[in-house]
Amino acid sequence: MSGAAQYSDERAREIIAAHMGLEGPAMPILHALQEEFGYVPDAAVKQMAEALNISRAEMHGVVTFYHDFRRAPHGRHTLKLCRAESCQSMGAERQARAFLDKLKLDWGGTTPDGALTVEPIYCLGLCAHSPSALYDGEPIGCVDAERLDEIAAEARD
Amino acid sequence: MAKVYIPLDMAAVAMGADKLAAAVAQEAAARGENVEIVRNGSRGMLWLEPLIEVETPAGRVGYGPAKVKDVASLFDAGFLAGGAHRLSIGIVDEHPWMKRQNRVTFVRCGVIDPLSVAEYEAHDGFKGLQRAFAVGPAAVVEEVTKSGLRGRGGAGFPTGIKWKTVADCPPGKKYVVVNADEGDSGTFADRMIMEGDPLSLIEGMLICGYAVGASKGYVYLRSEYPIVAKVFQSAIEKALEAGWLGNNIKGSGFDFDVELRIGAGAYVCGEETSLLESLEGKRGIVRAKPPLPAHVGLFGKPTVINNVLSMATIPMIMEKGAKHYADLGVGRSRGTMPLQIAGNVKYGGLFETDFGIPLGTVVNEIAGGTRSGRPVRAVQVGGPLGAYVPVSLFDLPIDYEAFAAKDSLIGHGGLVVFDDTVDMSWMARFGMEFCAIESCGKCTPCRLGSTRGVETIDKIRSGQNVDANIDLLKDLCHTMRFGSLCALGGFAPYPVESALRHFPEDFRKSALEAAE
Q: Does residue B510 have a pLDDT over 90?
């Protein structure tokens, strides 16, 4: 997340143009925009609507339908904790609650120093190693409270 | 040179496989040992991950779960020659967990280098496609129909009939779409096959494209699987380089391309019509059927849409013939089912077996009971839309019809085990909450019903008019089940109703506490 570039209309235009040869390019464009800027800025959504020849309302509808696409910059690091049934069978819900309480956050919240965003995720397919998590894209199995504390400390470095 | 296997599988990586591979390479260099490290898929014995395997004249010897701190002692013990060590599990193929399985779809997974076309070919890869080219498209559809293969995504619809519908559409633009949006909790078979044997999926798509007259295939993969994305993209490139994708494949005159697309965290996009909308770049809103995707699918064109496992099983069916596959299984559930054993279990992993094995055998013997050591209370079979099955129904065989007769489903074959600390009214509430979070919003029973479901269960849990609210909840479940457009709203009642039916005491607990 820390490597996210500052938004520029020109860069967004380039990204959109690079995908226009695809069939149904909207999802690949949105992923590429988020990869570049760390979120999907409103200005880019407007450009996308023009490029794809659909209304801004329609484009807005697409962006907001999907949990992955962020509308504002996030913390420098992102921790996704699995809340699905398998992880719940190993006490994930209680563990996640305690961790969020400790950081004084709710799901989707970011620490005041902008270091860490904690989001729910519904299954990482690591269900034989529940509870599981994804920290900046890196999978972690059998997560315990100690490992969560390490991650919180690491994020602040 | 010693050949060492360390999985690239996401579960292995989540338990430290990348660091382990680096440590083995470093230690080998320091000791002047010549070691080739192959990053394979997982064998499916996930409790042993990361599992290191070493090739020896007697077979592959396994060591696991191995940590970085074990590396020096493994070298000291002569593990490169299969030496004894406390982590040794002996010859991997002789392990009881492996011996009890019948690996059909997963026969190569964990065995070969997933990104080596040569190894894939050496393990019977592309033989199914070559046979398809030899017999012609109509015979391929016939063969798939005869095999009795049913969609492994959850609905269990006969694959051959789907293919025939698309094949019978007039020639023109058609598509092959693979549903790799494996969102059910407790399932990871699609992930494992795409990491461990991605070329089998590509071969299945090629056979399908050839059979129905399509030249373009899309794989819609969920974003929660970053390692699959890397491995599969690389497999596409390798297949292209080797001439197994592209134009005039191996001189057959058949053209086919595969493109990987990534979803964005919407569970409902695992529903086939919602997935197609998403591929087209729209909100993942479910379409009303008819028309079927086989007639009006992606971009309005005839489209075969199959689950990863269904598609990855096709090469084997074409190679060995329909009868070989149809001879496995029971009743109308033919072939094998890759079961995914998960949650609170001692031995979790992927276990592929013929249909018909009793649920209790899987949970008590194969999974070894709970990891917590407490008694098993419930097993959720078939993901978040699957029913909770109590221990009293453990003689139920893994079979689509047998499960349906008990108001349950097999779905994608995921089993999530819970011990006796589980609060089933909470799990029922979570089922409704999940449906509310993930509902696409198109139909009212699902969109509003799920939210009302959460509210009603909250009332029950806090002891308000418990009897009346339980009746209301049952009524709501009935409406959702029969009034929803797709399986999300239609099946969300399964966990709720099964919890009410088999664990009624959990819905009265709070009422009793409140009364005290």
A: no
> Nearest CB to B265: which of A26, A68, A84?
A68
Q: How far is A79 from chain B (nearest CA, A)?
A: 13
- Asked if pLDDT for residue B365 goes beyond 90, the answer is yes
Cβ–Cβ below 8 Å for A126 and B11: yes
Q: Which chain B residues are closer than 8 Å to A66 by Cβ?
A: 263-266, 284
B424 in contact with A at a CB cutoff of 8 Å? Answer: no
Binned at pLDDT 50, 70 and 90, residue B41 comes out as very high
| CATH number assigned to the domain comprising residue B464 | 1.20.1440.230
Is B285 among the domain residues? Answer: yes
Q: Give the best residue of A48, A126, A140, A143 to mutate against chain B (max B CB count within 10 A).
A: A126
**Which residues does residue B61 pair with via DSSP β-bridges, in sequence order?**
B54, B91
Residue B259 confidence (pLDDT) above 60: yes
**A125/B419 CB distance under 8 A:** no
The answer to whether position B105 is within a domain reads: no
CA-CA distances (angstroms) from residue B66 to A57, B23, B86, B345, B440?
Answer: 53, 11, 10, 20, 43
Asked if the Cβ–Cβ distance from B10 to A125 is below 8 Å, we say yes
- Look at chain B and report how many structural domains it folds into: 4
B447: which chain A residues are within 8 Å (Cβ-Cβ)?
A: none
Residues B339, B419: Cα–Cα separation, whole Å: 19
Separation of alpha carbons B163 and B160, rounded Å:
5
Q: What fold does the segment set A77-156 form as a domain?
A: Glutaredoxin (3.40.30)
Nearest chain B residue (CA) to A25 = B281
Q: Name the residue facing A24 among B10, B281, B340 (closest C-beta).
A: B281
In this predicted model, what pLDDT tens digit does every residue of B368-400 receive, in sequence order?
Answer: 999 999 999 999 999 999 999 999 999 999 998
- Whether B239 and B246 have beta carbons less than 8 Å apart is answered as no
> In sequence order, what are the residues at sequence separation of 6 or more whose Cβ sits closer than 8 angstroms to the Cβ of residue B254?
B133, B206, B209, B210, B215, B248
pLDDT in tens, B77-98: 999 999 999 999 999 999 999 9
- Which residue, chain included where needed, has tokens 């496995």? B328
A154 touches chain B (CB under 8 A): no
**Residue B425 contacts A where some CB pair is shorter than 8 Å:** no
Chain B residues touching residue A124 (CB < 8 angstroms): 10, 14, 224-225
Chain B, residues 146-165, CB within 8 A of chain A, namely: none
Q: Where does the pLDDT of residue B334 fall: very low under 50, low under 70, confident under 90, or very high at 90 and above? A: confident
What DSSP assignment string belongs to B104-153? STTSSTTTS-TT-HHHHHHTTTTHHHHHHHHH-HHHHHHHHHHHT-B-TT
Report the SS3 class of residue B443: coil
User: Which domain, by its residues, includes B8?
Assistant: 2-99
pLDDT confidence bin for B516, thresholds 50/70/90: low
Please give the ipTM for the structure prediction.
Answer: 0.96
Both B443 and B464 in one domain: the answer is yes
Per the CB < 8 Å rule, is B282 touching A30? no
Do B13 and B56 sit in the same domain of this protein? yes
Q: What is the pTM of this model?
A: 0.96
Please list every residue in chain A whose beta carbon sits closer than 8 Å to the beta carbon of residue B285.
Answer: 65
- Give the separation between CA B212 and CA B176, rounded to whole angstroms: 9
Q: How would residue A2 be classed by pLDDT, with cut points 50, 70 and 90?
A: very low
Same domain (yes/no): B180, B285 = yes
Domains of chain A: which residue ranges?
9-65, 77-156
Q: Which of A87, A88, A141 sits opposite B14 (nearest CB)?
A: A141
Establish, for the pair of chains A and B, how many residue pairs have beta carbons separated by less than 8 Å. Answer: 152
> In sequence order, what are the beta bridge partners of B390?
B378
